[in-house]
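yo

u said u wanted the structure for the complex thing, so here. seqs first:
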Amino acid sequence: MAKNQTVLEGNVASRDTLRTTPGGVATLHLTLIHQSTQREANAEVAVEVEMNAVAFGELAVEMNGVKAGDSISIKGFLSRKNRFSPMPILHITQFKFS
Amino acid sequence: MAKNQTVLEGNVASRDTLRTTPGGVATLHLTLIHQSTQREANAEVAVEVEMNAVAFGELAVEMNGVKAGDSISIKGFLSRKNRFSPMPILHITQFKFS
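structre next:
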């Protein structure tokens, strides 16, 4: 199995309402803004990324308590947004407030 | 320090020539295609993502041996592409052939 794991901590910039797919699965989309300093090529670099993320099922319901501005840490895997868009989106498999 | 760590394994779809920034730092851009099956909301889902990645400095020089089609595993952090584009790109801090 090819590895695909991301841990990202940041502030919730925006969140969508809790939706349900046509198949009946709860879905929550949010955008996380991350800022940090990382070590790269022997230098400290300021890093910023705005990542689209999505949770499904029970986790989506559990994350319905998350508000814009909350600081959270999420763990998950990267996937293309959909058939039509190659934009990477982070699928959340675990989260906690941080 | 806010966490930002990704491990991604896949095949090199394309790679740029080894370049040098105006500041004299070696830079290597590549695109990694990852395919796997992940567990999400109690189901197995087929995942595909095409991720732009970049290495700087000694690591870029070391990765100059990487060819399109090679299977590699990379570790790094996500960052927006640049000031003008919010597209996430994976900055490589470690790599190995897999």
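Chain A has a mean pLDDT of 96. Chain A touches chain B at residues 1-10, 25, 34-42, 47-51, 56-60, 73, 77-80, 86-88, 91, 93 (CB under 8 Å).
cya
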